[in-house]
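Late entry, evening session. Most of the bench is empty. Finally got around to the prediction I had been postponing all week. Sequence below, unchanged from the version circulated by S.P.
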Amino acid sequence: MLKIKNLRKVYTKGVNTEALKGINLEVEEGEFVGIMGPSGSGKTTLLNIISTIDTPSSGDILIKGQNLNKISKKELSIFRRDELGMVFQYFNLLDSLSVKENIALPMILNKEDVKNIDNEVLSISKTLGISELLDKHPYEISGGEAQRTAIGRAIINKPSLLLADEPTGNLDSKSSNDVMQLIELLNKERKTTTILVTHDPKAASFCNRVVFIKDGLLFNEIHKGDSQQQFFNDILKMLSFFNNKL
């Protein structure tokens, strides 16, 4: 599904800063992978490059065999629209649109049939548990409900890859748990390959695998076994190791 080959990113404004120093990573179709590391480690830069928000200085990103460094801007725009879904910490919903319109926006921009749009929004909103909120606006709903709406917008085009950047960062513990259970459900039921960047060990414990980045390099990775609690404990141990090294 995703292959990252010797990925480097150097920021050249002012003093040159090497954010990524030769990352190699593979993610299989249907995997749910977490990316963790200290602040400034390069994890958000990595996600931004995978999502095509940013471009690498060198190296290759291949998604479904497509090398994103070797296609035109127009092709990249279409690829991003059709294959990638993105969820952010700050929801990025449009207050002028209803919940229904926010979820439907990608299909509206694609000029899809209105009946198909209505059917997809209804189906997704039921899965997300927000079907009763479709006529409300983002400023009328809770943070957890807003994030569910943002997830709906991200998945309505059935993306091959869902990218989530700190999706629980603005939520209380209950809403965070609810959102992570939802992302886990979508990963299992839809087989949507998912990559999560997070500081939150509880959120990371919903993943199948967590990759740790330090100083722009892959440092370690751990896999979930049969116990989410044990996986959570293993993540805590790794984060403790990082903190002791800072």
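Two things to note before I forget:
Residues 173-190 form the longest helix (18 residues).
The mean pLDDT is 90.
Will write this up properly tomorrow.
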